[in-house]
Amino acid sequence: MAATPLIEIGALFVGIALAGAIAQRAGQSVIPFYIVGGMLAGEHVLGRLAPLEIGLGDVAVTLQQPYVSESEFVELGAELGIVFLLFFLGLEFSITRLLESRDRIGKAGVVDLAINFPAGVLLGLALGWSAIEAVLLGGIVYISSSAVITKSLIDLGWIANDESDPMLGTLVFEDLFIALYLAVVSALVIGGGDVGAAATDIGIAVGFILVLLGGVFYGSELFQRYLETDSRELTVLRTVALVVFVAGLALLLDVSEAVAAFFVGMGFSSTDHVHEIEELLIPVRDLFAAVFFFWVGLGTDPAVFADPALVAVLALAVLVTTPTKLVSGYLGGRIYDLDERRSLRVATGMVTRGEFSLIIAATIATAGTGPVMTETIPDLTVGYVLVMSILGTVLMQYADRLWSVAQPYLVDAAE
Amino acid sequence: MAVYESDLPGVGKKFEIDLDGEAQLVVVIHNTGKRELFVRDSPDADSEKLFELSDKLARQVGTIMEGAYFQPIRDDEISTVLDDDTIIEWAKVTDESELVGTTLAESGVRQRTGASIIAVQRGDETIQNPPPDVEFEVDDTLVSIGDRESHTELERLAAGEATLDGAPGGGEPPGDTADDEFVDDDSANDEP
Questions:
Q1: Would A300 be classed as within a structural domain?
Q2: Is the separation of the CB atoms in A281 and B32 below 8 Å?
């Protein structure tokens, strides 16, 4: 569009900043706003507007509306966003912490998995999709959004209450599951469904992950020494270097870059530098994660939501998977010995889906074959995340009102 | 008083501190450095947010709360606990005290009580690492380090309830006393 690509990058960040400002004004999570911002700023909306004619006396100037295109930079930025999102997940992921409360996290996590994942798979199969497509849908509707839920917990002040424990605990379980899921499913999808080729791919993926896991368990000394420097600049550079390089290497081997980044984060989580890395790199993560959500919007034509078939599937997915999360969240709260009211809060809190559903759709589904994987699933996921992130946040805000309605039923049921 | 610490994955750490009765103070320290303070009236109640502080501000408020800038001295319960056996306390010298008019070395406070004087507050002035020849005056505040028993003894001395007579080791050469004091002083000052 423009004379220099720099103006395009500038326009990209102006769009993101605007979307973020509007989200904050509306008291909503930023993720759906970044996505919608991307949709509006992209070629499908802004790019389609008629050129602007400005007449000044005799001079007429025609201005083509500038739009943000899906340039290589935006795509790479989005990929870095995925890598940093997963890296931070790994960084927060302490095995000792998981083991400490493994009983409750395990129980609540398994209940959550056993209710929500099959619901998505069954829905996919009922739609006549193939097994692998159904498994993708299972993952997309299973995984709650750590980013949105954590932010809502802080905004509502629930973070200081007991309900934050089952919510954050279940998220940790989900995150670990999704790392394994991404590894296996990406190998399956990229293998093209051929069982023999898929087996080789899974072999490579598992091998690569085993190497990374070995690094996590036995390499903490090395990681520690790697990060040992007085310079903040060097800490940033070394961390980014290792994360991006390993993620790139993973992609070269057809292994999910997100999984690789997750394990590098896990490796760093046992060093003394976790806090420092978080402090220095959270802005980097936020920057690229925003680009990722914006990029998801850029690639989505809002017109697809005029397709009744897609809307029907979307509505079905929302109608099926909202109650399943409510039930699993409620049970999770009960597993943590919370009363009915707090368990209901946990239930409302887990409804939100976000970044990981998009990562599944963006990194796995689009690499697949057939219209369902390359078109339906990505579009469906964008719509689904938009609905669920807003629905979940609103449900949390109205949890107490919901409680006054649900109280008689829940308390009776418990007796 | 019990303090419960728990991890908040992706957020930071949570500290729950029992207050009087059933109430709890909840401090959430975010990974970003932000501190949020909540109060919970009973275990079942919702946490009510009191306020939040930036990392820098929280540290400043923390040192003020700790008493680093100002220590009210009237209350004899004010003390800073370093570990189970080591406490820093403040004791005021009254006009009835036998300490008045004697020097640190002459009084042999450490041999007599077991507590080491690490500073003398006199009006607006603080004499750190008081030299052996510093002379005690009425209204001096003695900042000392030692165990609980030593402090009780020193307080009695400063208040005039105990005398210097018969102090164990009171007759030791002053030079020794001073050396010991200095050794203790340094370690005490570095510790907190």
A1: no
A2: no
State the pTM of this model. Answer: 0.71
Nearest residue of A to residue B16 by CA position?
A160
Residue of B nearest to A165 (CA): B8
Of A384, A371, A322, the C-alpha closest to A351 is A322
Minimal Cα–Cα distance from A123 to chain B, Å? 31
Q: What is the CATH number of the domain that holds A145?
A: 1.20.1530.20
Distance of alpha carbon A314 from alpha carbon A322, whole angstroms: 12
B171 touches chain A (CB under 8 A): no
The alpha-carbon gap from B5 to the nearest alpha carbon of chain A, in Å, equals 12
Q: Angle at CA A23, nearest 5°, toward A17 and A29?
A: 115
Say yes or no: A168 contacts chain B, CB-CB below 8 A.
Answer: yes
Q: Which residue among A14, A45, A63 closes a domain? A: A63
Q: CB of A294 within 8 A of CB of A19?
A: yes
Contact A413, A169 (CB under 8 A): no
Q: How far is A314 from chain B (nearest CA, A)?
A: 30
Helices (H) and strands (E) counted in chain B, each on its own, are: 5, 10
Q: Which of A63, A90, A110 is the last residue of a domain?
A: A63
Per residue in B122-156, pLDDT (tens digit) is 888 888 888 888 899 888 888 888 888 888 888 88
Tokens of A370: 């057939």
**Beta carbons of B14 and A159 less than 8 Å apart:** yes
Range of the domain at A20: 5-63
Q: How far is it, in rounded angstroms, from Cα A399 to Cα B49?
A: 18
Residues B75 and B90: their CA atoms lie apart, in Å, by 9
Residue A189 in contact with partner chain B when CB distance is under 8 A: no
Whole-number Å distance between alpha carbons of A182 and A44: 30
> A226 with A271, same domain?
yes
pLDDT tens digits for range A12-55: 899 999 999 998 898 778 888 999 999 888 877 777 776 666 66
